[in-house]
Structure formats: structure tokens, C-alpha cells
Amino acid sequence: MKNVCAVILVTAGLMACADMGPIKIGKDLYSISVRVPFSGPSGAKGQALQEANAFCAKQNRVVLLDHENSYECALHGGCGEAEITFLCLTEDDPRYNTPHSLRKDNGEG
């Protein structure tokens, strides 16, 4: 019985720190989804951005955040979830140097 309880606790702990990504979803475009315990939505967003920056840095590129969504887990208790969509660009890429508010609207909200 003790072994079963230990397996359940380890599994629950691993599920609490779920991480999906980065997943390539387009040209230079990636998505990361994370769930972190005890950090809330802002902690989850921070974790996702750290992972995105590390991923792009390995390619000698920089992150350009395209979209983010962060919220409290359905489990509550301080758990946070975040999904970000980002581009990995070279520093001289014109998309990196154009403020987001000035980019051409592609019809998406």
C-alpha cells in the first residue's frame, strides 16, 4: 500500500509541473504551455518566457512574444498555467525591431 501511495504522489507532482513545448507551429513560430504549482498565472508566464528565451538563445536568436494567455489552474491552490506563442528571430530581423502596436494587423484579435 505504501508503494501505491508513493507512486500516486510522484505522479501528481509530475503532473503539477506539466510543460509542453516548445512546439513549432509555423515559420519561426513556436508555442509553449506550462503549469506550475504555487506560482499563479504570473509565475507560469514567467516560466514560459524563460523557456522561450533559452530555446531561442540556443539558436543565437531572440524572442518576440506574439501572444500570451495565463490563468489560474482548474485545480486552484495557487497553481498557474500559461500558454505563449513566440517567434525566434535574429536581432536584425525587421519584425523584431517593429513595435507590436505598429505591426500590420492580420485580422486576428
Question: How would you describe this protein?
Answer:
The structure is a single chain. This protein is an alpha+beta fold and 109 residues long. Helix content is 34%, strand content 34%. It contains 3 helices and 4 strands; from the N terminus they run H-E-E-H-E-E-H. Strands 1-2-4-3 form a 4-stranded antiparallel sheet, covered by helices on one side. The protein is elongated and about 45 Å long. The chain starts with a helix and ends in a 12-residue tail after the last helix.
Q: What's the helix count?
A: 3
**β content, as a range?**
25-35%
Q: Give the ordered list of helices and strands.
A: HEEHEEH
The outline comes out as: elongated
By secondary-structure content and strand pairing, the structural class works out as alpha+beta
Low-confidence stretches: 3-16
* Cα Rg: 17 Å
Number of strands: 4
Mean pLDDT: 79
Question: What characterizes the major β-sheet?
Answer: 4 strands, antiparallel
Strand order of the largest sheet: 1-2-4-3
Ends: how far apart? 52 Å
Q: Percentage of helical residues?
A: 25-40%
Quaternary organization = single chain
Q: Summary?
A:
By secondary structure, the protein is of the alpha+beta class. It has three helices and four strands, in the order H-E-E-H-E-E-H. The chain has helices at residues 2-16, 40-57, 94-97, and strands at 19-26, 29-36, 62-72, 80-89.
